[in-house]
Design goal:
The protein is mainly β. The chain is built from 1 helix and 5 strands, in the order ββββαβ. It has one domain. The protein is 8% helix and 30% strand. It is globular, with a radius of gyration of 13 Å. The chain starts with a strand and ends in a 10-residue tail after the last strand.
Length: 63
């Protein structure tokens, strides 16, 4: 899968960052949520899936 950089609000090149794929999907780079209490509020987490947290201002790059 190929990704194209869309934008970032990081000044250091890290997260949060958003990418668009050739498949028409988005890839979000953010801080992984590991807090058990927060994850308990999530539904249907499958093996291999993770939740990441990104600030709302990142989505300004989506137009």
């Amino acid at each position: 899968m190929k990704m194209r950089f869309v934008g970032s609000t990081s000044s250091s090149g890290g997260c949060p960052t958003i990418y668009e794929t050739e498949r028409g999907t988005l890839v979000i780079q953010g801080m992984q949520i590991t807090d058990p209490g927060t994850l308990a509020e999530a539904h249907d987490i499958l093996d291999g899936e993770a939740f990441v947290e990104v600030p709302r201002e990142l989505f300004k790059f989506l137009g």
